[in-house]
Sequence to fold (428 residues):
Amino acid sequence: MRKTSVITAGVLAFGASLATFSAAQAQGPVPRADPPLRLQPRPVGQVLKIPKITLSPAAVERIWVGKFTAAFMARCADHAVGCAVAAIGSSGVTSEAADGAARRAPDFAPRAMTAGDVITMASVSKTFTAATLLKIISDKKVIVNGKPTAISVDDKIAPYLPKSWTLSEPAKTLTFRQLLRHQSGLECGGISYAQLKTCFATTKLDGAKTYHNENFADMRMIIPIMYGSPVRVNMTDMLAKEAAGDPGPIAAYYGARYRSIVNTVVFSKAGLPTLECKVQGRAPALSYKSATTHKWDFSSVLPGESWGDMSDYCGSQGWFMSARQMAAAMRAINTPGLVMPAAALTQMQGEQLGVYASGDLGKGVSSWSHGGYHPAEWNKGEINTIIVHFSNGVSAGVIVNSPYKGATVDAGGDLWGDLVQAALTAGP
Fold:
């Protein structure tokens, strides 16, 4: 009996332990306290290393163009009737801003200025003309001694002028480079077809070898003749009318061909729609000038200028674009191989053929640009335009539709200076 009692007691003890274990399992595991965190002090003099954050090129450009357009608009705001700026980087990132009015009283349909407002480019047109010509020259071959031979900007333009023109002996010596660099000495007193025809017949090239619209206006005829036509054109009737004293039809023909070719060679490569050299729409953006005796007092302005139809005068001036389109076109021109071969682009920039090189503007930034200007003193309104390509890959377009006072110049406008300061504000 004593032995049995011992066994029974052991069984009872085992059963009690099993019950306790089962109850604990039912309640879940017993939590354990983690040991306290012990921070190890950093040795004196040891530098804390923070991982370097590298921005993508597109992110860097996005920051730059945003700063640039904001800085320019801070300078332009309230210093003109209206101003617009657009910028696009090599990666395609964009930024744009505008201030003031595209239209205002006393004109109907007043509205704010935008970067999409289209207006005349004035002499900014020369860069588009130059890019088209350089592309054609880079592709052109002539037969010399029975062999196709490349031509250059130092070749003479005479073979590519209208056959109905009579050329003076000095005119026969003109080269593409002389036109592109404004070094021809041409002074024609006008840029219409008839005026240029007369000028080439009589010129002694004894004018100042400096900036003249004639140098680029004659490219309105040169470009179509060099480029050719996809279909055979019967010019008999146009030539007969020209000989009879009516150059209108042949002038219109060359103007239309020029516009078509520039659209094909330049603007289409920028993804732009077909552009024109005339005002379009019922209520387009206008250019203004003060109705007061103070040029920069815009409290009251005269009726605005639309700039009309420049189709037969396009080349040295006349294209109608928005700031957004200007930036896109300048980016396309300065993308190697897109509008013209890389070698031709290098020549355009390096030899300043249709653009002006700035040198170092500061912070290592340089640029290639062209401006446009129709002064208030000669017109119902004033237009100021700039296209620019910076060495950091950003292209921009600027439109000011009145005289520009400038943020830093009390006596007058320094649009280029304020644009440069905006670029320097944005950084290298």
Summary: Residues 2-27 form the longest helix (26 residues). Residues 220 and 258 are 6 Å apart (CA to CA).
